[in-house]
Amino acid sequence: MADIILPNIVQLADKWHVSGDVLMDNANLLLNQSDAFSMDDEVEIDFADVTNVDTAALSLILEWQRRATASECKLKFANLPVNLTSLATLYGIEAFIPLGSH
C-alpha cells in the first residue's frame, strides 16, 4: 500500500493551492484549514499538486461552492486530476464544477 501524502492548502492572494492526497480520511482537515481563507470577488482553487483523490474531494469542492455562493464569490477550479473529473462525471455533477485553467 502506498504512503498517504498529507493534504495541505495555502492561500496566495486570490488562489488557493491544494496539495497531497484528498481522501475520505483527511478531506475535513482541508475544509477546516480553508475556513480561515477569504472568499472575495473571485477565487481559483488549484489542484495541480494533488496526488490522489476519492469521492471526498467532490464533497469538498461542493462545500467550497456553497461557501462561495454565500459569499457572492465566483469560484473556479484548475488542474483537476483526471480521476477526479471522471468521478464528477460518474456522479453527474461535472456541470457544477466551474473550471479555470487546466
Features:
alpha/beta; 32% helix; four-stranded mixed sheet; single chain; 29% strand
How do you describe this structure in short?
Helix content is 32%, strand content 29%.
Report what the structure shows:
The chain has 102 residues and is of the alpha/beta class. The protein contains three helices and four strands. Strand 3 (42-53), helix 2 (55-70) and strand 4 (74-78) form a beta-alpha-beta unit. Helix 1 runs parallel beside helix 2. The mean pLDDT is 92.
Beta strand count = 4
The main β sheet shows up as: 4 strands, mixed
What are the segments in which pLDDT stays under 50 over at least 5 consecutive residues? none
Please tell me the overall pLDDT: 92
The fraction of residues in strands falls at 25-35%
Q: How far is the N terminus from the C terminus?
A: 29 Å
Shape: globular
Draw up the topology in text:
Blueprint: E1 8-12, E2 15-22, H1 27-34, E3 42-53, H2 55-70, E4 74-78, H3 82-90
Parallel strand pairs: 2-3, 3-4
Antiparallel strand pairs: 1-2
Helix pairs in contact: 1-2
